[in-house]
């Protein structure tokens, strides 16, 4: 691989990182797992002046639950950590379903959830997961921390809401208000291929009724799409064939796919609806 | 596979052939010791003092006129040593070069670019990063022209002429070719009860070896000798081609193919990059390395297939095939650059239906220039036999369906019986042996054909879609005999040279070039079989034209049929001389000498003998009066015919009716490749071929959009299966020794890649037979299956890909 010439900084603390981002601004690019950035640099689609490698900053590789049940995933938490997490397996069915479907084992061992969300590739899986769970990102900049809701984080393909001097510190998933269930279904032509279509489904039920629902779509629009109306169709009542079918139809309508060598727009919409039926109706959604 | 030791008299002191690593021994691959330790020596490992690095600037457009090229910014970058343009090449009469198919190919574009990825400029610099920077600093102004991405566009009236560089070229026709008996075929069709028709496209697939192309050219200004280390499957052809193209004396050219990291036909042609590095080295007087990157390899080098079929079969209602008529259109890309036998413009396409008695047939073919990368015959295909057999087996399934006859039974009716050989096909091949029914039956029994049909019906009742696909075929491997096969006029023989040292150890060199096939292991086994020298005592060397005997290289599964036969023949020459030495040592006349593995003995007195090692020692220390010292020789082998391996592949699948995704349930392979030299390597070849067959049927292809942009220019878009997707394989064998090969072996490397794809596709179509859909083009992607299920119409995969 022969990328363009670039500088390299390896801060050892968040303070040092902040001052580097302050100094380089737009010219800097943060290197976490590098599983999207490095291939882009290899192809010279990306040619940052400076790579700021955050792998030497201690304490960012966590994923942990606050006492109230809020889940926090740090900027250096690798996919593989989430894939093998007992915490997720026990309490976060959607995340546990999505983690092993991220790319391939090599990418999972290096890449990070936060980095993947920052990359804002509409075919990225984690952004849909965060949308479906109603999560947010925590950004750290010279003016301190701020939260950015999942729905506002991605501005379009490969564009996020971070300022040049900000870093995404963690992804946060709020505590559930009911019993969690959910799953992630993805159609890919091969392990590691970008999704032809993917659907993240998250439900919280209480007393036999759905109290919160989130549905988000991968690979069928310029960004990951929160299918809000589809999710809303499930809320306030027990899960039924009718409500699931309604959600499937609404989610398919919310998709904005383009036909390409992975399939026609009609096929992709059909896959979205099929996955919702499967994920919710056929017991593929795993209760936590 | 079980081994049976030859029955020998109890007095025999013959060596146990399996123990010494001879024929039939699954000895471990000797080359793997260095490969798995990272100690291979590939072209990119070659580092010479003062070496410079080359990078190619490629065209971003498929078809455009070059208005201007400004290289001044590149020259200004510190560390840039040379920038070559087409104009500079033209001044040396090197802007164009001849191809191995008697066409011409641009070395660097002068007038127009004709495909996306075409070589436009070259930068040589102190390191590869600077060379790449140099390429980015070149400003090329293009005037876009309408791109052509399929034969239909190519042949349309008023289509822009891509090859306006060629005198007399008024359209985009690359070649026309025909074979067979048109009138007899027409008569047969007139008498047919049923005519079965099928149209399909075999997509463009890239060989994608792990190691891309590359070369290190080293011209020594003092000695005027040119040494080129390069990734070639056929180094001798390259030496001759360089001698002819560059007008350098052939004895001053040395081509060295070090370890080659996979070829699959990708590394037979002579690519512009090789020529650039050679010219740069001559101009600069320094070694120049070119290492192609993955994208460069995928978008510019020899691909396979991209062929369209219009096939018809004349059938009698009892299932008998009366005649076959086919028309094939090939998308050749911008240059006709195939490395294939000169006489056959569409390779060995006419080997189609060789295992069936089809009465008569007629094939026409037309090649089309398009704005795509040149090629067509690469990729484990033995010169388009892949398409020939895929079309055949897809047509066979369609015909069985049209007649309402079971697909296995339809094959039984039409396969050549065991007593039919030798059989001349309607297209001129002589098929010399086979046990087709036995092969098919073993496959059907292994898969449990009748039981699967019952299971399929039961599943169907529950809405599940199961399917079973069969592919049976014989294919011509091992080009070839010199009457019919040549490249650039050079006959397609091969060669071996064997030197037995005084201590009985030996070095063998051949004109072939291993690139993963395991020659270093298997050639030694042939020597071991012929001479009784343990295989571990034979070192095998290939790829250096200064030391190896002249040969046509390794592709088209030709190594064992041709070079392997030469290894046998040279070993027998050595044995003949050793026999004379043995007679001398044992003080009897040569007529009284008998041979058993590893040893000569006196007839009637078997305890008196001389081992091959004792004979070797005597060849240097105690030869009979008047005998030339030494124990070495060479053999050039011109095979009397191709070899005809046969195979039966059966695949079962389940199709998800909602998503179109299909999973492979089982794959049964029955291969008859004659005598197996190293059964383990043969099985590896078959499993590799089946993996590629699965890949092409399921996911792996290159296509183009309407602008001529390639889809599949990197390994994120060009999908090759991983261990996760690849199904398991159940292997079986039938052994029908090749009647003319010295040890009865046949080619095998390509069989499964050739015969396999149709079995997968037939299985999917069988699973959705209720829709009446006759064809879904490969790769049979989920969306294509879903579309077929929705529309009950055939699904074409031909470019351009539909976006939006």
From TrEMBL, chain A:
* One matching Pfam family: CO_deh_flav_C
Start and end residues of each FAD-binding PCMH-type domain: 1-178
Oxidoreductase is among the record's keywords = yes
Cite a single GO MF annotation.
Answer: oxidoreductase activity
Q: Where are the transmembrane segments?
A: none
> Which InterPro entries does this chain map to?
CO_DH_flav_C (IPR005107), CO_DH_flav_C_dom_sf (IPR036683), Diverse_Substr_Oxidored (IPR051312), FAD-bd_PCMH (IPR016166), FAD-bd_PCMH-like_sf (IPR036318), FAD-bd_PCMH_sub1 (IPR016167), FAD-bd_PCMH_sub2 (IPR016169), Mopterin_DH_FAD-bd (IPR002346)
Task: State what protein this is by name.
Answer: Carbon monoxide dehydrogenase medium subunit
Q: Whose protein is this, by species?
A: Pseudonocardia hydrocarbonoxydans
The top of its lineage is: Bacteria, Bacillati, Actinomycetota, Actinomycetes, Pseudonocardiales
